[in-house]
Amino acid sequence: MAAETSRSTFETFFESACTSLGYDAATFELLLLASREVRAELPLHRDDGSIAVFNAYRVQHHNARGPYKGGLRFHPELDLDEARALACLMTLKTALVEVPFGGAKGGIDCDPAGLSARELELLTRKFVERLHRLIGPNLDIPAPDVGTGPQEMAWIQDEYSKIYGYSPGVVTGKPIATGGSLGRASATGEGLAIVLETLLTHRGEGVEGLRVAIQGFGNVGRHTARALHERGARVVAVCDRDGGVHDPGGLDVADVVAARLRDGSLAGPTASSGASTIVPVDNASLLELDCDVLVPCAVSSVVTSANAPRLRCRYLLEGANSPVTAEADALLRRRGVEVVPDILANSGGVVVSYFEWAQNLQQVAWSLEEVQHRLRERLQRATLQVVEAAADEGLSLREAAYRIATARVKEAFFVAGF
Ligand code: GLU
To answer: Would the pTM of this model clear 0.90, i.e. be above it?
Structure first.
């Protein structure tokens, strides 16, 4: 069997969407292949005097619906293949939630935890030095992804503005101080909660009392925990790469978040709370805990054909991009686990990126209430479209979401011509 990579996963889902829409092989190929793929070498003088060389990538998949859009990932395992799959996902995500963007993804194959702040800044600025001709407010707009955040976006914005003049719209997910939007930092987590709530309400259920386990406690995982807790869910387990905590009775989310921000680790609440029901958990065992909703918010391909038979959740909400392989997806469906696909579930981030970009272009700033209201409206609409299409045509949520998004991209691509 071929390796269960995010690339093979994406291609499997995308090909079946194209087939079910009646597209021929040439059309599938045309929609699948990226418009442009770039690799650049980034040499760095390390603090200790040595020289290290990293690879920078940017894959621009499609721009038929608007400028290329998608995150920059700083992760040692990033390669062109992964960036390709993630760029295609962005094209479908922006189409599904109807924001006027295409799709892109890229980053640097570095481990930010192993670099000093100075090294990270130099590397980020070098990325712009090498690739600035390819990005821009009307061309390609990067944003945070795994291993990056507002600080990296501020460096990119600054470096780009040195060449092209004041250009806040060149990146989204910036600090508020340099033109970022209120509500962007919490948008992906908030969006996950809105999508789940909309889906469950449609089914006559609710979020209240649901037991939730969250893998990954970076920006997305943290805000998901808070947003679901606020809606009455019981967050029973959280973890990141250094370990985590499990309490079947429900964790004190504020305490866990505070400990993570204070200590940089999730081990704190276990030791300090003294509650005997709290036990340690790691990334692999968290996935197999007894819960109602499992939310993988870390990296790709964590649920595979090897562990899918052991999952004990009812719903799997894809906070990360491509956390479930195609083989695992089929297995989960047979077992009655409902998967809420990434291009819908975690789309809150790019929706508020769009709001940020729109505010930048008009040089205005919206209130938090306005951002949240607009986010809710868009995500509820997209969720109901997917849920209704799935019910009408007997599809999984992923099949329905892919079909809707693919048809929109294809229409834009062909109506404009090439
Ligand atoms: N990295 C996020 C994603 O995968 C956000 C992308 C963006 O805002 O452009 O959706």
So the answer is: yes
